[in-house]
Amino acid sequence: MIATLEPVETTPSGPTPEARVRELQQTVSASRLSLYLSSRLKFFFRYVARLKKPKPAALHVGGAVHATLKSWNKARWRGEVLTLKQHHEEFVKAWADSEGEPVEWDGDELVEQATGWRLLDTYIRSQPFPPKPEAVEVPVEADLKQHGLPRLIGVLDLVQGGKIVDYKTTGQTPNPDRVAHTAEVQTSIYALLYRENTGRHERGIELHHLVKLKQPKVVITELPPMSENQEARISPYWSRT
Q: How far apart are CA 16 and CA 20, in angstroms?
């Protein structure tokens, strides 16, 4: 399980920026590190200043899709078979779970909801006989104190057939070469966490893109196990956040 962070100093309005920085130095995750490397200003606004803004519609759709896939994979792990109606009920529940959180809709919410369901329907129908999951939404960590580095944390969407699977929703068809480059930080961290927690090397990594087009489609990018060069490239970043 992910360890609880040590308490930080607080003021009547919450932790001070200095306390938030100390908190951030305790752990590092793939998403946090990726944002830091792409834009330090965005990192500051989100994690240090903690500025609040409405959730983008795409993020809301992606969250509901992700939650439904989680329930589907957990059912498969238990050896259960869910009907399409049950999948839809899980999606509707996931969509409603965050209704209290403000969302910045690009258009009609019902249209966005229908888009999310079409993505799920397309994906589930494209995976009729996937292998039984070995792990679903499992929190993992690597204690790097012996290297003078923060604790590395993450959550693996799915592990099956010895491969790490990560789900992504997108509005554009991904380019495999570009995706392999832009997702390298994330995939390398997931590989490190998998190896630390299992004592084995992953057989590969799969990025499952659910593409929001007029006719939704699924694009699976298969990547090889993390190489020694990739491991060497990712390790210096651990101590920078």
A: 6
